[in-house]
Write a structure and sequence with these properties.
With 159 residues, this protein is an alpha/beta fold. 37% of the residues lie in helices and 14% in strands. The strands form 2 sheets. It has a 3-stranded parallel β-sheet. Strands 4-5 form a two-stranded antiparallel sheet. Helix 1 links the parallel strand 1 and strand 2. The mean pLDDT is 92. Pfam families: His_Phos_1 (PF00300).
Length: 159
């Protein structure tokens, strides 16, 4: 199990560790997107103070929200962390990644090979929900997203 070193994700990973007995490795590369001057503001305050910048971001333009990170920069730092730990897994091993909604979405988009403009199409990730990726014939495959129950295998009509 790997986790962001920020307080909420680290606490969530700690709870999972207590339940599973798995050790947690904390990595700053899994931190949430740094949003500069937007940090700590409500949605309304962001629109009031940074309306044009917010509108450009919602249109899918590459925006340094509040002077912070681009979504591609978040993926640049987080995806290699996930890949490095995934490469160390035994066959059929499972890697649990505890991070933050924006970081998870951009990392999934990067791992799936989606253009950054389309990452928003994955939708948000609710607190304490998860996504499941696996290896497909042509790379990573998203099998479940924003889930709140344990995944069930997909069966064909003939099963």
């Amino acid at each position: 199990m790997i986790a962001s070193d920020l307080k909420r994700a680290a606490a969530t990973a700690g709870e999972l560790s207590a339940l599973t007995g798995l050790d947690v490795t904390h990595d700053s590369g899994l931190r949430e997107t740094y949003a500069g001057a937007w940090q700590g503001l409500t949605h309304g305050e962001i629109i009031e103070r940074f309306g044009e910048q917010y509108a450009a971001w919602k249109r899918g333009e590459p925006v340094r929200r509040g002077g912070g990170e681009l979504e591609t920069e978040v993926a640049d730092r987080a995806a290699p962390v996930v890949l490095a730990h995934a490469d160390k897994l035994p066959d059929n091993g499972t890697l649990v990644v505890v991070s933050h909604g924006g970081t998870i979405r951009t990392t999934i988009g990067r791992l799936l090979g989606l253009e950054s403009y389309h990452w928003e199409g994955l939708g948000g990730l609710s607190n304490c929900c998860w996504s499941v990726l696996g290896e497909g014939a042509r790379g990573w495959r998203l099998t479940e997203h924003n889930a709140g129950t344990l995944p069930e295998p997909v069966l064909g009509d003939d099963d």
